[in-house]
Amino acid sequence: MSKKIIVIGAGVIGLHCAYYLNEAGFEVEVIEAGSENNEDGCSYGNCGLLVPSHFVPLASPEMLRSGLKMMLDRTSPVYLPPGKNISSLPWFFKFIKAANKKSVARAIPTLYKLNDESRKLYEELSAQNKNQSGFTNKGLLMAATTEKGLEEEVALAKIAKDLGIKTQLLDQQQLKTIEPEIDLQVAGAVLYKSDGNVSPEGHLRWLKSYLKAGGIVFRYDTSVNRFQVEKGKIKAVDTSFGKLNADEFVLATGSYSAKLVASVGVKVPVISGKGYSFDLQKDRLKLQTPLILTEAKVALTPFENTVRLGSGMEFNGTIGDISYNRVQAIINRTQKALPNMEKLDAKKLDIWEGLRPVTPTGVPIIGRTNKYNNLLVAAGHAMMGVSLGPITGKIISQLVVGEKPDFDMDLMSI
């Protein structure tokens, strides 16, 4: 008889864990606190970028320097509301400790390999679903508005080259060839040819329907109350549906992960980083290639009919508390680089907000817990949840099978 695995969380990480566990032949059940048709979560409103180019962890000396300057500014891309973060001081001390050159150097090859392998898996999945995922591989433009910013991007491109990533430095004229219908006022850009994107909504809708058709049980509107422990293992979860037993459990609940397992003595060092996004019709912004404005920290992704703008990292932000000043600042920073973009009023936009799960190292947590060998955690992917979804699911399935994934697993352990 095959093992039964309960996956807690039906976001991009949980669904990919369910997919690869199912492919490995396990009986899989998915528990989700939200409703079946709820697409408000962090997995849906993001920019859908697939980013082998994002090999530098969030916890880095550069982020520490720039972040400290921005953290108390209510209109900056990074915001630290003091009152909401007092209880998270230990997390921030760990972040500061991890933001050093040695830790970054260790993380770079792992983050690159995770993203690169995951992009390859997206190619396989999109072929399987006849591209209901909306997969494209047009690359990613990292555009800088200043010469200093461009120098920093060129330095990163040199590291990328050593990793095997193909890049191209573009001036204004070359950018115009790639993006003939937008006026991009920047010092230059680096094109990462390794990158791509998917439609988060399209991909996850397909994945849920595929899993349901394959016999996986989904329990929506089902919250986890507590874990039942017996003889050093998780025996069951008590939920609003009732008691659910399994052989192994996968925790994939993003920024809510720490709270769910705290009662059984498992510490998951994840806090939330709130981000915003909104969509514009493509005829209002005729972008063809995914774009990040590096100094402004704004991402723009063209989908079939829309272009999505996303930005922001508000530590321990809360859903339902939209900062229109912050969203207006996102718009204003974007318009500096795209002066012909129409004037927008944040209060008149349909704004999405989501809580990204962030670890103090900038590296996701993927693996078994030390305290309970049958409890696995897959959380803390920050802005790369969509990008790292498939590879996370594959690693989790390998661990349940008993295989040793070809990654630095100690780096991702807790």
Care to describe what's here?
With 414 residues, the protein is of the alpha/beta class. Helix content is 32%, strand content 24%. The strands form four sheets. Strands 4, 5, 6, 7, 14, 15, 16, 17 and 18 form a nine-stranded mixed β-sheet that branches. The longest helix is centred in the N-terminal third of the chain and has 28 residues, at 101-128. It is globular. The two termini are 31 Å apart. The mean pLDDT is 95.
Key traits:
alpha/beta, nine-stranded mixed β-sheet, 20 strands, six-stranded mixed β-sheet
Compact summary:
By secondary structure, the chain is α/β, with parallel strands linked by helices. It contains 10 helices and 20 strands.
Strand content: 15-25%
Give, in order, the helices and strands: EHEEHEHHEHEHEEHEEEEEHEEEEHEEEH
Largest sheet: 9 strands, mixed
Structural class: alpha/beta
Using the CA coordinates, give the radius of gyration.
Answer: 21 Å
Give the helix proportion (percent range).
25-40%
Instruction: Please mark out the parts with pLDDT under 50 across 5 or more consecutive residues, or reply none.
Output: none
What is the averaged pLDDT score? 95
How many angstroms separate the termini?
Answer: 31 Å
What general outline do the C-alpha atoms trace? globular
Helix segment tally: 10
Number of strands: 20
